[in-house]
Amino acid sequence: MVFSASMVKALEAGKPASDFFTDQLLFVIVGSVVAAVLWRVNYRTWVGPALWIIWAVAVVLILATAVMGTDNYGAKRWLYIGSVGVQPSEFCKIAFLLVAVRLLLDYRSGMVEFRASMVRVLIFLIVPIAIMYRTQSDLGTTVICAVGIIAVMWMGGVPRKVIAAVLAVCVVGGLIAIFGTGYRAGRLVFLDPWNDGKGGYGTGYNIIRSYYALSEGGLFGVGLGNSHEKFQYLFASESDFIFAVIGEELGLVGAMAVVLLFFGVLFAGLSIAERSDDEIGTMVAGGCTVMLVFQAFLNIACVIGVFPTTGKPLPFISAGGSSMLASFILLGLILSVSRPERGPSVYEQRRADLRLVRQERPEEGRPRPSRGAGRPDRPGRTGRPDHPSGSRSSDRGRRPAPSGTAPSPRSRSFRR
Fold it and tell me: TM segments (predicted)?
């Protein structure tokens, strides 16, 4: 889809028609390698001491973007290293999600008291996210971070009242951010894009072109590569509004197939989180899944006109290296939770649980006691005292188990 949606834009810029496609293919290959590496690494590594290095790098990238970032379409969100452009917010949101997991773990384990935990949340989450929002004017990424953190709280067993309070604060903050900024308030024109003050040629223009693309697609679409709106009518047809091109070329059937694929990702990710060995895996897999799928549905909601435009790409589909690599990082973290750890085999477990009774051999040169010598006499025989318990038959062949010996395999239950 990237090739079809971007070929006109590439030709208009004097580049080969496959320019965007070849770049995207490279990002997919690199992202696949990164996801495979993350899949092989224990997910607990990313909430250990290495997490604070990741957090520090994320904060440095945010500050560097604020100072040296490039302004594109009215927002300073890009940081250029030579000729390579990077959108740091795509990677910072993952760092903040992992920090939320660590902070919640420290609080639940009793390592940090409530007040100290709130201070840590303020320092490590709220302040960096607020700086990112303020300097980059990126409400979309801020909302995605908030949803991911709330998902971590839900998976971590935070009381519903607390989650509801946090959600209410986020909603109020979002409304203030929308109506407190003129250009964001202007995006509410999606409710009636033809009434934008310029007859549909103002702020409502792109959403109208998106409507045209979706309506022209019908049920089965106009055919792959036959889109009309990608001929410089629909802005960002290869990135933020690529779903409109999918709807035009592949129709309602193709668009619903994309939606169902993301529902499949949601189901698979939450299933991995539910079957995780510990709460760390549950929070990591659940938070990453919700963050990834929420961004996809946020993009689709903007394209079909049920939410104001946020400028967030469609994961795995939109053109863009930062978005593609960040999506594969999230996927790799989810897969790392699904990777089972090798535990002891059945035979090793049985051998570890087996009761061993060690019988000492008589020392060399020491005469063995004769049969019956030193034994208490059996009851009922003259000249032999009775056994203290009255009978030895119940104790014959038994010896007390050494202290500290694990119970038998039948008396223990294993998760695995």
Answer: 20-39, 46-66, 78-105, 117-133, 139-155, 162-183, 250-272, 284-307, 313-335
Question: CB–CB of 129/145 below 8 Å?
Answer: yes
Dist CA 172 CA 167 (whole Å): 9
Q: What are 72's strand-pairing partners?
A: 75
- Spell out where 268-409 has E strands: none
- Domain extents in the chain: 2-338
Q: Which of 146, 100, 89 is nearest to 123 (CA)?
A: 100
Give the whole-angstrom CA distance, residue 255 versus residue 1: 12
Query: What Rg do the C-alpha atoms of the chain give, in angstroms?
Result: 32
Q: Which residues contact 240 (CB under 8 A, 6 or more apart)?
A: 299, 302, 303, 309, 311, 312, 313, 314, 318
The strand pairing partners of 79, in sequence order, are: 86
Question: In angstroms, rounded to a whole number, what is the distance separating the alpha carbons of residues 34 and 63?
Answer: 25
Looking at the DSSP bridge assignments, the partners of residue 75 are 72
Average pLDDT of span 304-323: 91
Taking the C-alpha atoms of 251, 254, 259 and 262 in order, what is their torsion angle to the nearest 10 degrees?
Answer: -160
Helices (H), 13-68: 19-40, 50-68
β-bridge partners, 85: 80
Is the separation of the CB atoms in 259 and 116 below 8 Å?
no
Phi and psi of 278, rounded to 5°? -150, 175
Express each pLDDT in 143-159 by its tens digit: 999 999 999 999 998 99
CA distances from 262 to 208, 256, 283, 323, 338 (A): 25, 10, 19, 16, 18
Reading the block at residue 98, the tokens are: 């992992």
Rounded to the nearest integer, the mean pLDDT of the chain is: 84
What type of residue sits at position 13? A
Q: Dihedral sign, CA of 287, 292, 293, 294?
A: positive
Q: How far is CA 281 from CA 54, 77, 227, 333, 350, in A?
A: 18, 31, 43, 9, 28
pLDDT digits (tens, 9 = 90+) for 327-361: 999 999 999 999 876 555 555 555 666 654 455 55
Q: Round to whole Å and give the CA distance between 44 and 277.
A: 11
| pLDDT value at 259 more than 50 | yes
CA–CA distance, 231 with 355 (Å, rounded to integer): 78
Residue 274: C-alpha distances to residues 44, 153, 260, 270, 285 (Å)? 16, 15, 21, 6, 9
Element (H, E) at 76: strand 75-81
List beta partners, residue 53: none
